[in-house]
Amino acid sequence: MKKAEITTSDGEPQSKPIRMINAVTPIPTMYTWAPIQQNFMVEDETVLHNIPYMGDEILEQDGAFIEELIKNYDGKVHGDESSGFIDDELFVELVDALLAAPVEDPKKDPKSKTEKAPDPFIGIFQAISAVFPDKGSPEELKDKYFELTDRSHLSTLPPECTPNIDGPKAQSVPREQTMHSFHTLFCRRCFKYDCFLHRLQASHPGPSSQKRKGPDLKPFAEPCGTSCYMNLDGMKEKLVAEKANEEAEEKEKNEKEKEKEKEKQEQEKAANGEEKDDKMKPSKVRKHGSLDSGNEASSEDSNDSMKTKELKRCNSKTEAGKEQPSSNSSCFSLIGSVAPEDHLEWTGADQSLFRALQKVFLNNFCAIAQTMITKTCLQVYEFAQKEAADIPSEESLKDHTPPRKKKKKHRLWSMHCRKIQLKKDSSSNHVYNFVPCDHPNQPCDQNCPCVGAQNFCEKFCQCSSDCQNRFPGCRCKAQCNTKQCPCYLAVRECDPDLCQMCGADQFDTTKITCRNVSVQRGQHKHLLMAPSDVAGWGIFLKESAQKNEFISEYCGEIISQDEADRRGKVYDKYMCSFLFNLNNDFVVDATRKGNKIRFANHSINPNCYAKVMMVNGDHRIGIFAKRAILPGEELFFDYRYGPTEQLKFVGIEREMEFL
Amino acid sequence: MPPKKRDKDSDSAAKSVQMDQMNHELFLQAFEKPTQIYRFLKTRSQLSPIFLPRTLSYMRSRMSRTHKARKEFKVNGILAQVVARKKKEAAPMADFMTITFLGVYDKKLEPARCFRTPDQQDENNAASAPAAPELIKLETILHKVCHKKRKDVTSPGLQVVLGESQVPLNPSEEHPPPQAPTVSIPTESFTRASSNMVKSFNLMLKALDMPQPNNDTENAEPAAKRRRREDANVYTAELLLFDKNNHCNLVAGDYELSLKKLEAPVRIPKGRVNTWDKAMEVPVELNKGSGQLELFRTGPVIKFRLNWASEPSSGMVERPRMLEASPSESTTDKENSTPSADGQNNVVAKKKEAQKMHIVYQFLYNNNSRQQTEACDDLHCPWCSLHCGNLYALLKHLKLNHPRFCFTYVPLPDVARIDICINECFDGSYAGNAIDMIAQPPGLAFSRDGPVRRTCITNVLVCRPKRPTPSMAEFLEPDDPDFENQRSYTTGHNRLYHHTTTCLPIFPKEMDEDSEGENDPPWLQKKTMMMIDEFTDVNEGEKELMKMWNLHVMKHGYVGDCQIPLAVEMFIEAKGEEVLAKNLYRNFVVHMSSLFDFGLISAVGVYTSLQKLHELANRQECKMELASCWKAQRDHWHACQKPPVLSPNPPTTTAAPEKN
């Protein structure tokens, strides 16, 4: 082994073995990016955040480019305002810090001591005003300070914020206020609060009052305990009468949909049920629930896709029905832990919670009490009586669009198939973003935004589930990867709420036979990044892929077309663009956020292709294998000719690619 | 070479010469690196060959065996083959090896031979003065060399005396004695079965009573005297009969062995093992007059004839005539006078002669001829020294094994010219284990801490391309870079992968996990929490619950309305305890009623899932904590003295039943 030797000034030789280190080949440049597996919508940037750096020589040569760029942002460049860094928060902090500090130089300003009592701050504001003249006069600053501090002194929360229902300061507020945060922030499409994809969209679908999933919780048949409201004198009789009324009402409602004989039969049944003892009632309730929908389903064509759905509901109903009698079982409660007089008090939290729950459980006071855990059933009942005046008796569950007769479903189906064909034939490249429609009491006709944009109505629309413009889903028993599948034909992924025959609704991905759910389930291939054989970085397949197999979703930031225009100018200059046209309204930009497939290079003879698909109401880009791909092969797709010309900006194509 | 054409050139000419010189420098530089690389590869492939050139389809001339036997080959026939071979091997082995001694020749005792008179110069041998050629007692001994044990200095041996015979000393060639003594050795004595330890069999001839030449040096006198007394002037010669592989190299023929004094038991080289191609070296030694061959000229030599016979002969037989040595053999190896071997050598030499071809290598640089070698008929590759046999094989070899150069074949009337230029399109990219490229320091294969997974870079390829019939035309045109065929035959992960966010290399042990492939990367978890925290009109309880719910949904990726009841169930399972511990029970209830409002869960679903949470609460014994929170709420409610929106519960009209 080689040794390095040195003789120190003392004449003492020192040596150390030399270890050679390999030269490592440099890797291509990469700009930082954040990994995501789902698209992320961002707002337009109205201010140029930074002047892009492309090397000194380019900036010097091409000053016009930067000028033009700044013009795109109306001359707004981040950090242009010289004193922009002092904001309200900083200002308050500064004043507080100066107040807390001891007076440094009392001799310099002897008057201030005497003045301090009436107006202790003016010196501070004068000083601040001197340093930041653009922030206003000392008086203005003083007023601003008081304004800012007063608000923060009043309470730590802004006035519009409802106190925490679990906190000690909980207040009694109307239901809308209790639910406000949950209702406004919840994304009905992503099932998340303040989701990344839809939070910026103007039409954020709120809760739709007309749709109720599954069965209501009927009042329990038996008293839940000794303090149950049913034990009140005459209560049982009242309940029975109410129930009869209720059922009669429902029958009336169903009248429109049902044939009259059937209805009468039911009424008889219901009447019979009333006379029977209480023990029979839970089963009757269940039966009734299934009559609501299941009966019809069975009378329908057995091929109807709705049938499975409703059967499922029936199943869940029966399961739930078994649970219902368990209301008597000892359930968790806090009542026992306090003195009897203490839980008589209805605190703000109790009141708010009751209002939130009453809409869910309606008149099932037992369930409400059990859920509230701080009140007895009887107390709840009595409180409900007090509240009754304030609450609208029954929410009208009427649909906005008049429900259609279910028999027409066959026609509906054939019409959809025709529609899909029409859509294909017109072959317009204009694919518009889907926005759930909300036009109460109007059917989805030419005025409906969904129809106008040539999109189907989705489950997120506020229209009736029988809307003609809805996509019916598929009833495939196979893999949904041929044009036999209407979903596949319509370039849609199977909707777990519409297509259940193919297993699209299964949560366990191993139980899904459908191959048309890869994007939503994120069933991407394992990809590996390495320096490309062509240019820069490339992406390589770890395992093999068959033809038309899903490789990965092309994820990125969703930006508007205008924003893409602005960003694209910079990217074109860099000769490196990750922009991908999603539809007429939006572009996917994988520059800042993306997934590994962003490293796939362009080729005119590619092994992958891109397809924009409608996935549960969102357009998403799937990358699929164009031919069988072996492990370790680099992935390419043609940036230019996608089915809908996805890529708006193609960076200057590299010479090597045309060899 | 830059030609110095004219001395009287002007400035411009001088400049052009300078330019020329520079170009030449560049030319040398361009060819230097590939040449060095190929020279290195040559040495490496000599030390540890990767493949045998004779297996290449275009190197047929190097393949000495035919594959004809393969066609008829059957597995079941192996035994029969071996038996047949064994029999064949045994065939030349006759029952007896008969050695007929022709005489002992010592040139120093020339007069004795010439005049057939008693050697008056032989002062030592006073007793003998016969008219007939002096007879020398010769002992024939079979020397069995056994395996050397580790501790032994010399190989242990076993000596069997086979017989004693009287051999004439310097018999005249013209008038040889009519009879010659013979010794027959039965071949059974060479069988190894008797003792496994025997490694080889040597024939040892011991000449006793050798007369001393008169020109013996004086200083050697005392030693010689002593020897005379004790050993009676013993000379020996040894001949290897069977080597350790049990091969007998001896065929019937005349042999000469030089005799040596026993004093130094030097083993005379067994000349028979020399093959013809080493013969070239022998004359050199002869010319130098050094080495063993010198002994044949000066020292005593015993001549004998070796025969394989089926019957033993003993005593005296008729003296056979000397065999004629062929002229070619006379120059090379006197020891080795077997006629059959000679014939073969000649045939090979003639074949070679017929293929002789003049080859000129012309080096090109910038399309200018830069250097030309002399015409030679050498079919060795100039870089590998590999003998290619014919011109086609040579060109094919050059083209395939030296891709850093381009070779073009230019046939000329009496010479084959090969143009060589640098291959600009040579792809010198590394094709080995990519991980080794980043191993720092390199060569850590044996100094790692423990076993680690390594990438597999072995590929088994089965490729049966259609081969065009060999023709010289394929070398006339330089290859077009055909990109279709550039596709590598191997597929798989023969490159170094990097982590997508850090660009750090992925080591083989990390290959199987899909890094950066998860649905909820840590930054996104943080991001969603921060985004919720940013709201000013959402209280802390709501925020906390929303964060928990978001992380839960992000992790599991629920896709449809129909999965929400399951999502709630899983949420309670995973985070129910946390919800209770963080005092978020009512927020969760509100969240559930919100889901109900969105039509994502039924009232029954809400009820049953809340019951599940109750079960958890019962188990968790967090009753106290919830109770204390409730108490705090009540205390605050009383303390605030705020007129409630709705009047508090008045005492019940009916008698309240007892609490359960």
From TrEMBL, chain A:
Listed GO MF terms: chromatin binding; histone H3K27 trimethyltransferase activity
Cellular localization per UniProt: Nucleus
Keywords (A to Z) from UniProt: Chromatin regulator, Methyltransferase, Nucleus, Repressor, S-adenosyl-L-methionine, Transcription, Transcription regulation, Transferase
Any one Gene Ontology BP term: methylation
Basic and acidic residues compositional bias, start-end: 243-281, 304-313
Residue ranges of every copy of the CXC domain listed in the record: 417-518
Reactions it catalyzes: L-lysyl(27)-[histone H3] + 3 S-adenosyl-L-methionine = N(6),N(6),N(6)-trimethyl-L-lysyl(27)-[histone H3] + 3 S-adenosyl-L-homocysteine + 3 H(+)
GO cellular component: ESC/E(Z) complex
PANTHER family xrefs: HISTONE-LYSINE N-METHYLTRANSFERASE E(Z)
Major location (coarse): nucleus
InterPro entries in the record: CXC_dom, EZH1/2-like, EZH1/2_MCSS, EZH2_SET, PRC2_HTH_1, Pre-SET_CXC, SANT/Myb, SET_dom
Region Disordered, annotated ranges: 243-330
Domain spans labelled SET: 525-640
Species for this entry: Cloeon dipterum
Protein name: [histone H3]-lysine(27) N-trimethyltransferase
